[in-house]
Design a protein that fits this description.
This protein is α+β, with helices and mostly antiparallel strands. The protein is built from two helices and seven strands. Strands 1, 2, 3, 4, 5, 6 and 7 form a seven-stranded antiparallel β-sheet that branches. The longest helix has 51 residues. The chain is elongated, with a radius of gyration of 32 Å. The termini are far apart. The relative contact order is 0.15.
């Protein structure tokens, strides 16, 4: 595991990278605020798992920075990239605080999450321009592939014609030598 990184400066949210992402992996941004994650939540005091998406292989989705999850997640997920797995330790003030989340999470509980950032996506319906741009880009790629395929087909046809012509020349040479053989003729 990697070194512990204090994301809040007060020890409230500490991230330890379990698996590093690929170098070109994307992170949540203003254009890609919707994230999909796998996670496992553990009570730090007891080690008991209180929630997980791993057992049924589900994905949990939310928009980073909107307050729809505990503060620790909004803070930590902004620092992650797709493919990364991190252990995030959350003090109560960055999780469920003095209220807890009965019955699974007691008051003032420190929580540990192992989180995998699976994907980052644009907001639903907000990126019609980018969707049409993506369609145009895919259409352009399709045209390029079709053009490349046509060029390859033309090159293949020329090679086959050249092969046939060479074979015909060789055959003609063989035919012309048949009658001019050495030795006793009739």
């Amino acid at each position: 595991m990697g070194d512990a990184i204090d994301l809040t400066g007060d020890g409230g949210v500490v991230k330890t990278i379990v698996r590093h992402p690929k170098a070109d992996a994307v992170a949540p941004t203003e254009d890609l605020p919707l994230v999909d994650v796998h996670y496992e939540g553990i009570l730090a005091d007891t080690g008991d798992i209180f929630d997980t998406t791993r057992e049924d292989n589900t994905i949990f989705s939310f928009e980073v920075g909107k307050g729809s999850v505990i503060r620790a997640w909004d803070i930590a997920l902004r620092t992650m990239k797709v493919g990364e797995i991190a252990k995030i330790t959350c003090k109560p003030e960055y999780a469920y605080g003095s209220a807890g989340s009965p019955p699974d999470i007691p008051p003032d509980a420190t929580l540990i999450f192992e989180v995998e950032l699976v994907s980052c996506n644009p907001r639903k319906g907000s990126s019609l321009g980018s969707v049409s741009e993506e369609r145009a880009r895919l259409e352009e790629l399709k045209k390029q592939r079709e053009t490349a395929a046509a060029v390859k087909e033309e090159e293949k046809k020329k090679r086959e014609e050249a092969k046939a012509a060479a074979a015909a020349r060789i055959q003609a040479k063989l035919e012309s030598k048949k009658g001019k053989g050495k030795g006793k003729g009739k």
